[in-house]
Every structure is written in C-alpha cells, then in structure tokens.
Amino acid sequence: MNIKTLEIFVSLADLGSYSRVAAEMNLSQPAVSMQIKNLEEKMSAELVARKGRGVELTRTGRVFYRRVSELLREWEDVQLEIERLQESRLDEICIGASTIPSSHIIPELLSDFCRGYPEIKMTVRVGDSQDIIELLDDREIELAVIGKKPESIELEVMPLIKDELHLLVSRNDELFGRDSVSLKEILERKLLIREKGSATRRTMMNALREAGADRKDLDIRAVLETNEAIISAVEAGLGVSFISRLASNKALEWGRVGKINLDGVRMERNFYISHPPGRIQGTPLESFVRLARDFSR
Description:
By secondary structure, the chain is of the alpha/beta class. It contains twelve helices and twelve strands.
C-alpha cells in the first residue's frame, strides 16, 4: 500500500466517480479501478459499492475514509516540515497581526529579529483578530500575534502580554477631568466601537455584559475599523470609546483625549502568539518566538 493509492481512494470518495478521479489525477479509469480493487484486497474488506452511475462508500469505507483523510493531512504536514528544515536558507517569512500588535508590538520585535536575520524579508498581514486566525488556520501565514485566543486545538498558543481597555473622552466633554463615571452615565453617551471580529470589541462587550448592560442598551453612533480612527473621532467629540492601553497611551500623553475609569468594571485581556505545532522548530521563527517571550517580561 502506498500514499498514491490512498489519495486515489479519498478522491473517489469525494468525487463519487471513477471517471472523474481518472481525469483529475491523470490516470486511466482501469488503473483507478485496479488500485481500489488492490486496496480492498489488502484490507480484506469492501470499501466502495456501485450506486447507479457512481459509487458510494460502505460502512467500513466511511470509517477507512475518515482515518485515511487524517493520515494524508498528517503526511502533508510532515512533507512541509521536512521541506522547511532542509531549506538551506529561508529568505521570506509571512506573519499576521491584529491591529494593535501590528502597531505596538510587532515593530519592536521585527527590529530585534531583523538585526539577527538581515537577509530575511518579512511580510506582515494585518486585520482584526478573527481574520488573522483564519489566515493561520488556512496556513497563509506562519505565525500570528493577536488579541483573541484561537479556539482551534490544532494551534499552539502562548499568552504574550496583558492589556487593558481605557475609556476615552473628548477634552471638551463635560466628563473630562473626572476620575470615574458610572455605567449609567456611559449608557447615556454616544459610543464608538470597533468592527465585528475585533478582540477589542469582544472584550468591551463581554465586560459591559457582565456589568449588566446588553448591546441593546448601548447607543452606538459609529463602527470604526482602526484604533486611530476611533481616537480621532473621540477627539472630535463624536462620542466616547473603550480603547487598548497600548493604542491610546500616546494620545493621552499628547493631551488629545482624556481617560476615565468606569466604576466597578475592568476590561482586561491578553495578546497571544500562535502557530501550527512543529512548524517553527529549526527555523528563524523559533528566534522570533523567543524574542516575543522576552518582550512580554
């Protein structure tokens, strides 16, 4: 039994036709039939049954299909890892970051990393946390720094750094200069929030919900896709907003906006670094992860 035979079987299960498999895999139809027959003899079990002009899997075939599909995915990962380890040099790396890490974490990490690997060209894909997790799941990027913990058990995840959301108000707002406000006062204000998929928005909504405020209680004036857009909108008096400490520090230092505490509510979250298991060992990205660990200390 070889990998090619297993690939033919999986294709037959997916396509349901010997002729379609033959055309897709550039084989003759008799060759496909022979491979399946030999596989069934090897397994001492009927795996495929004729149905009209096509085929369907038997009960045993369905079990075999599930396990073989897992095996082929593992085999593909093994091939990719070996190719990566055998490359004499790695001259381009693509990583992903959600909006806050891309502006406030990644630049420092890349500066340190590129001093050790000046020949490597880095590409950073930027989006909200959910978009970046999907790129990582699809293997379009090799590593991600994000504000939402991936749920996939097929990814390694490490907490990187803690963050807290600040409530920002305009300097012309009557709340400006106060130490704290009540939830009731905030619910009477126009609110500016991030887009769906944003970990900032998720953290804010979860904290407000725990404090007793549902989305229907919020008077949302605008949804904006970047933190700088929200800070500028707050500065212009469009509304108030909850923004990451990392993203708002400079605006606060320069006096563009003011910060107020929300009574009894803390909006805290982690940033995470995540990658597929076994994909960075022996590559320069292993050094990148070490730098990230040092950054978080």
